[in-house]
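Weekly sync, protein design subgroup
Attendees: M.S., D.O., the rotation student, P.L. (late)

Item 1: inverse folding check
M.S. brought a backbone from last month's batch and wanted to see whether the design step gives back something sensible before we order anything. D.O. pointed out we never logged the input encoding, so this time it goes straight into the notes. Structure tokens as presented (167 positions):
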């Protein structure tokens, strides 16, 4: 799972490749993600879109794009919060490709990347209006935790965490 591009554990036909946030593929997926989140969570205080290029720089994190048959269908990121703790961000699969294991494949890749950065715990924030995401994270072993950071006061945020076994 540590090769920079190619097939990974999970769906064998999903290609994963690290991308800069400013790449055309990343930008298009992030626009689609933000559009969907604004529809689900129309109150601006409920939208937390913070992820900077420096957060996913080598040694700090990774942003990955998932493709099937040369079509970009999803993305996700992991960033270090502090020593031993990482956060998942910007997880997204285009609506027409959901329910096919693409998100779970991206998730496993990002967990592996987090381990390679020395992470022993990973956390994330999703929302009460994202039942598919909640179900995927629960299937992957995540459980609800207290809201943290910018999500502490958000009544629509659901924060989750998972301990990662060493490499």
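Designed sequence read out in the meeting:
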């Amino acid at each position: 799972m540590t090769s920079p591009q190619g097939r990974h554990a999970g769906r064998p036909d999903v290609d994963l490749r690290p991308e800069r946030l400013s790449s055309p593929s990343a930008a298009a997926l992030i626009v689609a993600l933000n559009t969907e989140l604004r529809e689900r969570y129309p109150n601006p205080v409920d939208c937390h879109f913070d992820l900077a290029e420096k957060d996913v720089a080598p040694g700090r994190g990774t942003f990955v794009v998932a493709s099937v048959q040369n079509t970009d269908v999803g993305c996700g990121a992991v960033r270090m919060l502090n020593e031993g703790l990482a956060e998942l961000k910007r997880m997204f699969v285009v609506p027409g490709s959901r329910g096919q294991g693409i998100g779970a494949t991206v998730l496993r890749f990002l967990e592996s990347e987090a381990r390679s950065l020395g992470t022993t715990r990973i956390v994330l924030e999703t929302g009460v209006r994202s039942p598919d995401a909640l179900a995927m994270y629960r299937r992957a072993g995540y459980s609800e935790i207290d809201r943290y950071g910018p999500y502490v006061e958000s009544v629509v945020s659901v924060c989750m965490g998972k301990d990662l076994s060493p490499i």
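Discussion: Residues 1-7 have pLDDT under 50 and may be disordered. Strands lie at 6-7, 14-18, 61-68, 71-82, 85-93, 121-127, 143-145, 157-163.
Action: P.L. to compare against the previous round before Friday.
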